[in-house]
Amino acid sequence: MKITVSVFDGVYGRPAAGVEVSVLRKPAGEPSSRYAGLTDSRGDFTCTAASEDLSNGQHCTVQLDVDAYFASLGMVAGYKQTSLEARILDSAHEHRIMAVITPFAHTTWLTR
Fold it and tell me: How many separate domains does the chain show?
């Protein structure tokens, strides 16, 4: 199961390199799984999860640390993080989460 998170900086019109991304799975009554890292120079972070961690119909939470990213650029963001609750539709296919972030607004969407 592969999830790629692509983050675009809406202020400067470029990929947002260095954004901290966390992909969390918290099933009821089971230990949670967390995959984390930073976006690369293309604004991408790829999470390759074990099939039992993210299977069909399960949910995962994707969090982006917007505050730290904009602080590194000398800006104060109006919110600390943005998160998206995504449903895994088919664990055999890659899922891609796209985000455009600014200090005071964001938009996200999921494609498969």
Answer: 1
